[in-house]
Amino acid sequence: MLTLPCPNCGAPVTFRSPALPNRVCDHCRSMLVRSDAGVGIAGQGAALPFDVSPIQIGTRGRFDGRAFEVIGRVRWSWDDGSWNEWLCLFEGGAHGWLGEAMGDFMMTFERPLAEVRSAELDRIARGAPALPGRKAEIDGEELAIADARQVSCIAAEGELPFTALPGWTIYSVDLKAASGRAASLQREGDEAWFYDGRYVTLAELSANNLRAIEGWTMPRYG
Amino acid sequence: MADAAVAQPAAKALSCPNCGGTVTLRAAGYSVTVACEYCASILDVSQPEVRLVTRYNEKASRLAIPLGTRGTLDGTEWEVVGWMARDDSGYPWEEFLLFNPYHGYRWLIEQRGGWSFGEQLTRTPEGSWGGLKVDGESYKPFFADGTARVTDVVGEFYWRVKRGDTVRTDDWVRPGAMLSREADGKEVNWSRSRWVPAATIAAAFGVAAGGKPWPPLPHQPSPALPFVKGGIVIAILAFLALLVGASITGGGRSLWNGSIAIAADGRDQQATVGPIELTRPYQRVRVSADVPALSNGWVDLDYTLVDRKNQASYTASKAAERYTGRDSDGDWSEGDQTAGADFAALPAGTYDLVIDYKGNNWVDPNKSSGNFWDPGAGEQTPDWRRDAVQPQVNISVRSRGGAGGGVFVLMLILIVLPLGAGFLIHARFEGARRGESDFASGGDDG
């Protein structure tokens, strides 16, 4: 845990883990980066557009028996809409992403592509287009490519493992299995990252400290 | 940090770029398209700046459940945020998009006055096209290769929607639920909808209760089925109760009891006993004979019941016989000293029972019984008819209760007839329901 003044506005900013070197200043929305040399400014973030997501920084829950807390978010958009990826910090320091789109949630974790060893994913990671409907076998389970598109960062908040500035554009491929397993591959230039997980519900996560939304009864889970 | 305790506003107001009307965005952050509720223009709300996609200048359709209406189903409150009218070759229906920020989206589907509550699935059903399974429930094919077209749209949606959009559809059903697959060129979506009684929707959303859809909805459970199932259970219980009742009343009412003596010489005898009063229109009557002294012999018993009024007579006969002995295997016995004879259906009246009977002794032909010229010379042959106490036949006449005709007729009227009517209603409902299916002709149990 490291608390420093924001180099732009002087407001105190806290970094919880060296694995999460990025932070958006709550006050001036500067995208800050922590390094051995101190804290620098990577760019200017944008205000998050109004939404009625039930998740907020500080929402807590459990996934597969492990407690987590939401500490950051990136809002992405594509041609036909936008969605949230909430960064969840787990006990022990690992992190996962709680994706929120169309009212559904999925929890995914980054996995090295080399470990996944899927010819189809390797092909896409090397620059080939992903074709919806095509199958990729991962850990003996068949996943189908649900969609593939260019996505752009709209805004971010809280702590993050990377610099996500407005306008940052990557190629994103979603995969789904019949079991409810969900995965995605993200590509920027010749770099690619793979995230693997499954659909979840807030009830299943025993989510608490949800965002209060006017006129709606907040459910109590767990 | 802003005050965490302050609740975030739930909605945002937009101004329609075409008509200037104030449009409420109830699912901000999720919604992509809004169809203006005043002029029906299609707006793009995916970007901070609202953009006009298709201009219409018409009065938007009036909805059975207006946008913004909230209703509670299964304990969760939902708000109507969007509405679509869809059609598959002249087969129209309406879909209301429901939203709760904590629970996401659901669908309220109305067709011919019948309602369903639907949700998108995040899993793909297992199985083949012949039958699918979700959450352990099996579904059978019902509609195949349909084309659903959007004919009208009002409100906000989380995807780009416009009039004329089409998807390819296939549907599977089970009683009470339908599984639907919708596919466009880009993606495949699975949803499950559950049939909801119109009264439940009427109570939750204040919509006028729908009529009874006919033909029924594909997944509508037969209204007669609970009745038929309950009826079968009642019939089984009633039948068991009748059996138990019959065994408790021990075959009904006693009509006459008495004894008749058996002559030692074994001659033909006749006795007339009675009167025997039969009161029900028709009854089964059993005449039981018990010959306690019977041993190695038999008694022929012929019964004639004679109606005193018209001399109509009914006959039955049954011999009582009993043999015992000893051979290389030890003691043996055969037959029974009691015998019952049944009269199936006797009309009411006052009867006399005429009994023709004859006591017989059995002589083992293999046993020596002296010489023909001197019967008394060998071992004395035992004769049960010659016991010290004169043997007699105890006669008991009873009407058979319980299973008697009247109760059965009553059971038939009270249970079987309504049950049969229930079956007919159920069969008619199922016939009409299946008749709508694309698999109607081929399927025997679709």
TrEMBL record, chain B:
InterPro entries: DUF4178. Keywords: Membrane, Transmembrane, Transmembrane helix. This is DUF4178 domain-containing protein. The chain crosses the membrane at residues 227-248, 407-429. Residues 67-197 form the DUF4178 domain. It holds the Pfam family DUF4178.
